[in-house]
């Protein structure tokens, strides 16, 4: 309601008051997010710091239940007021459409984080049934169910066991565990996004793409163009560019990238593990940016035009992302470092325990993604002219979803 | 739109067919649940001893070696919640009942209702044992379709077992579980760690389950029936991995019940010298040989006039 009113006022107000109005919107949105999500984390961290210096302080933490999806819809509504402030869009006078935009059920709890410029006008115009769009929506839902129920839920069983008892396993097994988590979070989150986009498509709405085969990225910059696209573009547009973007001095560029990735980590949760995860991505991304800019190394690599070079680059990116995932998954920083310490021990080169076939199948799945990389999504198979083959693919997918579904697990991103 | 709906319907038709086939499979083919229900209903007038409990009782107490006519109505992952529902359902139809044996495991007293273990089982109790299960929501679609309750791969496995063996019933006509043979199937030492971990629920609140037990005991007292709370034997390596304070609390709670109710006897045979490692199927279940040996021990205790209240 505040954002709706602020946006309407922004249209008719002078420049000084506009800043105040934007401040009001930021204060309320980020304030609510802070109270619900970060208050306890900061107060506990402060208390620990004071304790380190021998001054224990008493504090009381807030006992709130975190509203589901708060980070998603806060960012969505924030983008609306900022866009109105920047005069990129005009504020709406239709309160029903505005509330529908903020609380649109397919993407309410875990995104994609939509922009008002894309979603809001869709509520205000008539929608008509379109056969091809509805069929594609169903394909997206089926692909999403496959990613969630087959890939993510089966990986979760292995990952939970390995992270719970990581001291019991060899380095190679734990490394496989980190890879499994990479697939779990990808299947879980991109699966949800596909289901959300597909459901919206059935209702006649087009939501933005949130994932674009991220594990086929050849460097970390590309990874962030393909992973959680709606969040990374949000940070790009509203934080990175606001800080000056890349048209700044080198130290400032380093600062800008680090701020964006620290905030990105913090957005995921009030825990040092997420901050470390963001920091790792930020630091490696800085290196990638400088290597590309300074040595023209990227241009050289692109000119190689070889599958082997591409495969090597994808493997290195995948390795970096996998190691960073350990911080994302671990319950504490100590656990994350303990897990990594065991990975990089002498047992790293032993034969891993557990289901190796599943790991091979997951790598095989990336092969399917490679095959589909120029398509919109995994089951975008309209180009296959034979109807029977298309139906066979649908039925095989349905069978695999039913037969190989893992134990039901909550969507990871629901907690954010 | 019409083409879309027609195509969706045609696409779903084979899936609907599979659902109907599975539903008729579950409705017509006898399972442990429906078989036990039929058997207990057929022998109401004969039953003198009734065994309630989870898999430890299901595989560990063989009515064949009991002197009194015994029926084992326990089942895999059967909690005290379902023990009570079964007891309430059948008790008034058992005119000759003299003893009720209830097994108490490490998690029995702390177990919550509607856990992951009950996720599909509760519907089978409802459909195939004719229990009115309050934890099932009337609007839950699974209440009306058994094919939707189990995972598809499990249903296919059961279907395969039925085609191959001709039955999916895994117990004899007195309710004793017959899957576990006379060898250790799972290594005891390695299995102990995983089992102990699986059984650790970190719960110490026994209140709800003690109320259930007290309800059963009080009714038994009213009808002059003895209750035996039985702690089943477990492999020593497994026992060592359990929380000692919880074990102590379980023992104390059972002892309190035995003190407060004169129709209750607590039999703690977690570690009994007569049960050897070779008597276990895994760290917490007896095999055929162990079940025979253990049932005879229980039978001796129950038959002892000292324990007849």
From TrEMBL, chain B:
GO terms for molecular function: hydrolase activity, acting on ester bonds. SUPFAM superfamilies: SGNH hydrolase (SSF52266). It comes from the Bacteria. This is SGNH/GDSL hydrolase family protein. It comes from Aquimarina amphilecti.
């Amino acid at each position: 309601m505040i954002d709706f009113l602020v946006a309407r006022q922004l249209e008719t107000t002078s420049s000084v008051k506009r800043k105040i109005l934007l401040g009001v919107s930021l204060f309320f949105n980020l304030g609510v997010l802070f109270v619900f999500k970060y208050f306890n984390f900061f107060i506990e961290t402060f208390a620990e710091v004071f304790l380190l210096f021998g001054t224990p302080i008493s504090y009381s933490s807030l006992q709130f239940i975190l509203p589901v999806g708060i980070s998603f819809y806060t960012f969505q509504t924030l983008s609306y007021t900022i866009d109105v402030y920047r005069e990129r869009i005009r504020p709406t006078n239709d309160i029903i459409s505005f509330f529908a935009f903020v609380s649109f059920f397919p993407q309410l709890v875990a995104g994609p984080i939509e922009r008002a410029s894309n979603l809001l006008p869709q509520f205000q115009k008539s929608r008509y049934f379109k056969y091809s769009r509805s069929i594609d929506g169903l394909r997206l839902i089926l692909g999403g169910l496959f990613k969630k129920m087959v890939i993510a839920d089966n990986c979760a069983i292995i990952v939970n066991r390995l992270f719970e008892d990581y001291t019991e396993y060899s380095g190679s097994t734990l490394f496989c565990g980190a890879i499994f988590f990479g697939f779990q979070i990808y299947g879980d989150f991109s699966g949800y996004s596909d289901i959300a986009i597909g459901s919206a498509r059935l209702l006649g709405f087009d939501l933005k793409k949130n994932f674009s085969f991220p594990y086929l990225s050849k460097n970390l910059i590309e990874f962030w163009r393909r992973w959680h696209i709606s969040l990374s573009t949000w940070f790009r547009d509203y934080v990175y560019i606001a800080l000056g973007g890349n048209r700044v001095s080198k130290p400032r560029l380093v600062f800008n990238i680090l701020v964006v990735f620290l905030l990105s980590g913090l957005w995921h949760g009030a825990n040092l593990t997420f901050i470390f995860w963001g920091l790792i991505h930020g630091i490696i991304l800085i290196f990638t940016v400088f290597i590309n800019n300074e040595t023209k190394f990227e241009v050289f690599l692109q000119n190689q035009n070889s599958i082997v070079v591409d495969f090597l680059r994808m493997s290195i990116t995948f390795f970096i992302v996998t190691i960073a995932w350990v911080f994302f998954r671990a319950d504490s920083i100590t656990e994350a470092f303990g897990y990594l310490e065991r990975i990089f021990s002498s047992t790293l080169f032993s034969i891993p325990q557990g289901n190796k076939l599943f790991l091979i199948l997951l790598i095989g799945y990336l092969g399917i993604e490679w095959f589909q990389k120029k398509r919109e999504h995994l089951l975008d198979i309209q180009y296959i002219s034979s109807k029977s083959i298309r139906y066979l693919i649908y039925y095989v997918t349905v069978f695999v979803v039913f037969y190989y579904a893992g134990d039901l697990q909550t969507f990871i991103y629901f907690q954010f | 739109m019409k083409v879309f709906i027609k195509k969706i319907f045609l696409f779903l038709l084979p899936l609907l067919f599979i659902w109907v086939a599975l539903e008729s499979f579950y409705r017509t083919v006898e399972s442990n649940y429906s078989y036990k229900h039929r058997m207990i209903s057929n022998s109401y007038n004969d039953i003198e001893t009734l065994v309630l409990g989870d898999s430890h009782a299901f595989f560990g107490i063989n009515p064949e070696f009991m002197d009194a006519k015994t029926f084992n109505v326990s089942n895999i992952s059967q909690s005290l919640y379902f023990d009570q529902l079964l007891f309430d359902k059948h008790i008034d139809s058992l005119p000759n009942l003299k003893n009720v044996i209830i097994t108490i495991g490490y998690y029995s007293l702390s177990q919550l209702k509607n856990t992951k273990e009950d996720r599909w089982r509760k519907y089978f109790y409802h459909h195939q044992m004719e229990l009115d299960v309050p934890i099932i929501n009337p609007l839950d679609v699974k209440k009306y379709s058994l094919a939707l309750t189990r995972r598809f791969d499990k249903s296919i496995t059961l279907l395969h077992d039925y085609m191959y063996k001709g039955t999916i019933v895994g117990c004899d006509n007195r309710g004793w579980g017959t899957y576990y043979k006379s060898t250790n199937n799972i290594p005891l030492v390695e299995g102990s760690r995983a089992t102990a971990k699986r059984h650790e629920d970190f719960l110490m609140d026994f209140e709800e389950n003690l109320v259930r037990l007290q309800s059963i005991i009080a009714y038994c007292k009213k009808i002059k029936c003895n209750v035996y709370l039985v702690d089943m034997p477990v492999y020593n390596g497994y026992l060592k991995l359990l929380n000692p304070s919880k074990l102590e609390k379980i023992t104390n709670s059972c002892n309190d019940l035995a003190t407060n109710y004169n129709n209750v006897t607590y039999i703690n045979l977690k570690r009994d010298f007569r049960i050897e490692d070779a008597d276990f199927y895994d760290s917490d279940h007896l095999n055929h040989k162990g079940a025979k040996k253990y049932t005879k021990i229980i039978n001796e205790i129950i038959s002892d006039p000292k324990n007849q209240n």
